[in-house]
């Protein structure tokens, strides 16, 4: 039995998925587009030249055609795609498999080490933002107590991508947002100079302002040390609303 209480997965299941994903990406590859994508993302890893929406569709088709029997096989397939990736789209596929709806019940606290590996080794917004908002957000909603403890710890971590994950974890929560947790995730990074932390703070506040503009306005006023970038992003929609009133 695995830590999730299910029998171990089929040997070779992850290999089959990886091979099928790579075959689909090779068939859809656009060599002329690939260098542009690589330059835009400042990526050391090359691209096949497949756009993100198309990559998601192709990966989703493979995942539907090759269902995995349990959490162990699912996690193995994610790591197989991620660790052996030779092109960035293979890692996009790994993230899509992590977030694939059929397996959302396996997004539980036992997956924290998996998420941590992806966040630390991915170390760029195109991976981390999806993992944070869709993956960690799902884990937080289903398992609030242990995940709140994890996110409060990550908010103070030396790794900026773990911090950004903590800040962005409630992007999709709307009225279910835990504002105490949101504040606890943001405060340790208010004085940090890293662009991706400042931008992440602003984005998290801007999204929540759509649900509770008064809370966001009060938070910004109570934290004058917020960077200009964070403040501008947080109040962007509120200022537009006032201008249009």
Write a brief caption for the model.
This protein is mainly alpha-helical and 245 residues long. The protein is built from 13 helices and no strands. The longest helix is centred in the middle third of the chain and has 18 residues, at 125-142.
Give the CA-based shape. globular
Q: Structural class of the helix and strand makeup?
A: mainly alpha
Count the strands?
Answer: 0
**Helix content, binned percent:** 55-70%
Cα-to-Cα separation, first versus last residue: 60 Å
Strand content: under 5%
Largest sheet properties? none
The H/E string reads HHHHHHHHHHHHH
Instruction: Work out the radius of gyration.
Output: 19 Å
Number of helices: 13
Average residue-wise pLDDT: 93
Spans of at least 5 consecutive residues whose pLDDT stays below 50 are 1-11
Explained architecture:
The protein is an all-alpha fold. It contains 13 helices and no strands. It has helices at residues 13-28, 34-40, 52-65, 71-83, 88-99, 112-122, 125-142, 144-154, 160-168, 179-186, 195-209, 213-222, 228-244. Mean pLDDT is 93; it is low at 1-11.
Defining traits:
66% helix; 245 residues; mainly alpha; globular; disordered N terminus
Secondary-structure topology with pairs:
Layout: H1 13-28, H2 34-40, H3 52-65, H4 71-83, H5 88-99, H6 112-122, H7 125-142, H8 144-154, H9 160-168, H10 179-186, H11 195-209, H12 213-222, H13 228-244
Helix pairs in contact: 1-3, 1-4, 3-5, 4-5, 5-7, 6-7, 7-8, 7-9, 8-9, 9-11, 11-12, 11-13, 12-13
